[in-house]
Specification:
By secondary structure, the chain is of the alpha/beta class. It has five domains: 160 residues, 3-Layer(aba) Sandwich (Molybdenum Cofactor Biosythetic Enzyme, Chain A), CATH 3.40.980; 60 residues, Molybdopterin biosynthesis moea protein, domain 2 (Alpha-Beta Complex), CATH 3.90.105; 81 residues, Molybdopterin biosynthesis moea protein, domain 3 (Molybdopterin biosynthesis moeA protein, domain 3, Beta Complex), CATH 2.170.190.11; 80 residues, Beta-clip (Beta Barrel), CATH 2.40.340.10; 199 residues, 3-Layer(aba) Sandwich (D-Maltodextrin-Binding Protein, domain 2), CATH 3.40.190. It is 26% helix and 27% strand. Strands 30, 31, 32, 33, 34, 35, 36 and 37 form an eight-stranded mixed beta sheet that branches. The longest helix has 20 residues. It is flat and about 110 Å long. It binds ligand LQZAQKY5 and molybdate ion. Ligand LQZAQKY5 binds next to helix 6. It comes from Slackia equolifaciens.
Length: 650
């Protein structure tokens, strides 16, 4: 019988239980001495005091002459003072201040007698037109560091400058906290080492690589154990070995309620289970316990859940071990582009893309799937929805923890609209041309581009909206949705739309009518996408009732997602562009060539991002790249087809 969840405690309480248990175990910080030159990123175990002052002698701060300031007193531009060679010494920057001197005059302020060269400086009298003040241009002993003063407190992450300061202060070795060893045990019969050709059901083991990276970034030393099969004995053996060798252990997967989920039971049998089940999403099956004096954290198998749990529960443990804080980064207020509902049962962490549009930060939620690890790759920030909240409406303001510097986010082209793989190619070319710029794209269909532009939430978006009455693309939609104008319709590409089918089209699919036949399975695009409008239009034209097509309600958000489903055999056909079919080696039945334009609102036109986009569209690289992808025709990308100029509403 599987071990059911015991608790649904708040994350804060889970952390408290874990840290209280650690406190009961007693002092933990272990120290070691390392050479300063190898201490970068380590954490000081004690406060560090300077052994010597820096500079440790009075040092000349400039090239010139050293003298006693009093000999220059009274010198002005009209009443110069002449100093004889026995009253000054020629010095260079860094030299010890000669005995009897208390000031340095820069060589630029030293005037030699008429006809005398610099090589005679030191043996000739010099004229000064400015008085020196005592200790002028001298770095006195201890200007930087005074012997005995505290340089760094304990718990400081050692920076390159701190390394230099320690050496200057006469410290050659520094006491640092020993890196806590964190054991990582991946478990599961289905889990296999990463490989290029996994079989169905194989789960590639990549969680431990993610967790090891996180552990390292917080000053710990990861120890990854071999993949352990799903048996209580094997998991117990691996756990006992890990707790004997490490300071903390992550037991990965088997945390939920499935047949082979033993983690909680093994921890409870081998030690003390502190909790199983935390009110966070993703990550609710998280658990923790103490086994033989070592904290053990049960991390759910799904990678996104795993990242959230390791961040929420392991980080505080490492902070306690290290006596340091890896506090959450900067947060900022953002406006939500789409509604985001959540349950009252847990606090939810939603990954978001961010972009600055008209000076306002806009957050677009990314996939919330616990298995979608790329949501963390694409994320610019994390939005928290508190446990007592049902979520946020579109347009609501919320605080977002930033995962990238704001300055970078502000230089991101926000693309919200119809999906086409060419947007990724634009991002690549743009980034090479101007590395400070990036692209944040979200695929919400052509109508989504219009909605986003109306709400001032994007810089541009792809549109391919067929007007059934005229057979024209986009113009009538823009006229209707922007009666006050304020947008430009910019040419991008012409692309082939058609049915993506199995290679060689074994079922002979030529039309939607064929797909309405018994036994055929279709995969569709989401409502509001141009491709969906095309399928609906073709249904009408061919007099096919959409309800008669199996899978017409099965909606995907991108051409590639549709292609992947056809390739997997889960569907016999889906409407999409040729380039996506080509990536997946699928058959393709052309239906029409459509006009894929970009909608660019006037408010975004002058931004460096949009100007860079136009440059990319007009570049040879773009043309070459698009032609290589296949299924596109390129005429004059970047050309403004029509400017819907702003006009007052009547
Ligand atoms: N009936 C229920 N089923 C599930 C529940 C539930 O409450 N009732 N909870 C779901 C939630 S929420 C989560 S999160 C997962 C947790 O699953 P487990 O921790 O038990 O993990 P597994 O089932 O062994 O694996 C799930 C999934 O995770 C991926 N995985 C696992 N190990 C690795 C690895 N080392 N590297 C990469 N990916 C890994 C893989 O996709 C597995 O399929 O349970 C839900 N189910
Ligand atoms: O807790 Mo699970 O991690 O929601 O997906």
């Amino acid at each position: 019988m599987a071990f059911a969840y015991l608790t649904n405690i708040a994350c804060e309480e889970a952390i408290e239980r874990l840290l209280d248990a650690l406190d009961e175990l007693g002092g933990r910080v272990k120290k070691e001495l390392v050479p300063v030159s190898e201490s970068l990123g380590r954490i000081t175990a004690e406060p560090l005091y300077a052994r010597i002052s820096a500079p440790h002698y009075h040092a000349c701060a400039m090239d010139g002459i050293a003298l006693q300031a009093s000999v220059t007193f009274g010198a002005t531009s009209t009443t110069p003072v002449v100093v004889q060679p026995d009253r000054y010494v020629v010095v260079d920057t860094g030299d010890p201040l000669p005995d009897g001197c208390d000031a340095v005059v820069m060589v630029e302020d030293v005037v030699l007698p008429e006809g005398v060269g610099m090589h005679e400086l030191g043996v000739c009298p010099v004229t000064l037109y400015k008085a020196s003040s005592p200790w002028g241009n001298v770095r006195q002993i201890g200007e930087d560091i005074c012997a005995g003063e505290m340089l760094l407190t304990s718990g400081t992450v050692i920076s390159p400058a701190a390394m230099g300061a320690m050496l200057a202060a006469g410290i050659a070795e520094v006491p640092v906290v020993v890196r806590p060893k964190v054991g990582i045990i991946p478990t599961g019969d289905e889990v296999v080492p990463p490989c290029p050709d996994p079989r169905p059901g194989d789960v590639m083991e990549f969680n431990s690589t993610i967790f090891a990276g996180m552990v390292r970034s917080w000053g710990g030393e990861p120890v990854t154990y071999p993949i352990t099969p799903d048996s209580p004995e094997a998991v117990r053996d691996a756990l006992l070995r890990a707790v004997s060798e490490c300071d903390a252990v992550l037991l990965n997967a088997g945390s939920s309620a499935g047949r082979d989920d033993y983690s909680a039971r093994v921890v409870a049998d081998a030690g003390e289970l502190l909790f199983h089940g935390v009110a966070i999403k993703p990550g609710k099956p998280a658990m923790a316990g103490i086994v033989r004096g070592v904290p053990v954290i049960g991390v759910p198998g799904y990678p996104v859940s795993g990242i959230v749990v390791v961040e929420s529960l392991l980080r505080p443990v490492l902070e306690r071990f290290l006596g340091a804080s890896f506090a959450d980064g900067v947060s900022a207020e953002a406006t939500l582009a789409r509604p985001c509902t959540s349950s009252l049962k847990h606090k939810e962490y939603v990954r978001v893309r961010l972009g600055a549009v008209e000076g306002k930060l806009v957050a677009t939620p990314l996939s919330r799937g616990a298995g979608v690890v790329t949501s963390f790759v694409k994320a610019d920030g994390i939005m928290e929805i508190p446990q007592n909240s049902e979520g946020f409406e579109a347009g609501e303001k919320t605080r977002v923890r930033l995962l990238r510097p704001l300055a970078q986010i502000e230089r991101s082209l926000v693309v919200i609209g119809s999906h086409d793989p060419l947007i990724d190619e634009i991002a690549q070319i743009m980034h090479v041309k101007q590395p400070e710029l990036s692209v944040a794209s979200t695929h919400v269909g052509s109508m989504g581009a219009i909605v986003a532009a109306k709400r001032h939430e994007n810089h541009c978006g792809g549109i391919h909206l067929l007007d059934e009455a005229t057979g024209e693309y986009n113009a009538s939609y823009l006229e209707r949705h922007f009666p006050q104008g304020g947008v430009r319709q910019v040419e991008c590409v012409y692309r082939q739309q058609g049915f993506m089918v199995a290679p060689g089209n074994p079922l002979g699919i030529e039309s939607l009518a064929d797909l309405a036949q018994e036994g055929m399975r279709y995969v569709n695009r989401q409502k509001g996408s141009g491709t969906r409008i095309l399928s609906d239009y073709l249904c009408k034209q061919e007099n096919v009732d959409p309800a008669s097509i199996y899978g017409y309600d099965h909606e995907e958000f991108t051409h590639t997602a549709v292609a992947a489903l056809v390739e997997s055999g889960a569907a016999d056909a889906g409407m999409g562009i040729y380039s996506a079919a080509k990536i997946y080696g699928l058959g393709f039945v052309p239906v029409c060539e459509e006009q894929y334009d970009l909608l660019i609102p006037d408010y975004a036109w002058d931004t460096p991002m949009v100007q860079a986009l136009l440059e990319v569209l007009q570049s040879e690289e773009f043309r070459a790249r698009i032609e290589a992808m296949g299924g596109y025709r390129v005429e004059s990308p970047g050309m403004v087809r029509r400017h819907y100029e702003t006009r007052a509403q009547i």
